[in-house]
């Protein structure tokens, strides 16, 4: 579980059955429909931004990029949320995506 947030890894180690169920739920949800991995990650990115979860925005931004999304697609995903979650939440999420993109450029 390298590269994952320490809190996430810690929960996985402490609560193995719970963690396995959580991972299986995510896999089952993705397998239940026609959306590809990139689209799934962009949708999860939007949800993470909506609940203002910095760690989840980082995680789903990384996974979206790994699934072939371009940085412009991540930013557009967030811009589309402005009328739904408000500019301050979108602005924060953009700064979190900037973190991910700047680390990839190193």
Automatic annotation (TrEMBL):
The keyword Calcium does not apply. InterPro entries: AhpD-like, CMD-like. Signal peptide: none annotated. GO terms for molecular function: peroxiredoxin activity. The chain crosses the membrane at residues 74-97. Keywords: Membrane, Transmembrane, Transmembrane helix. This is Carboxymuconolactone decarboxylase. It comes from Candidatus Sulfobium mesophilum.
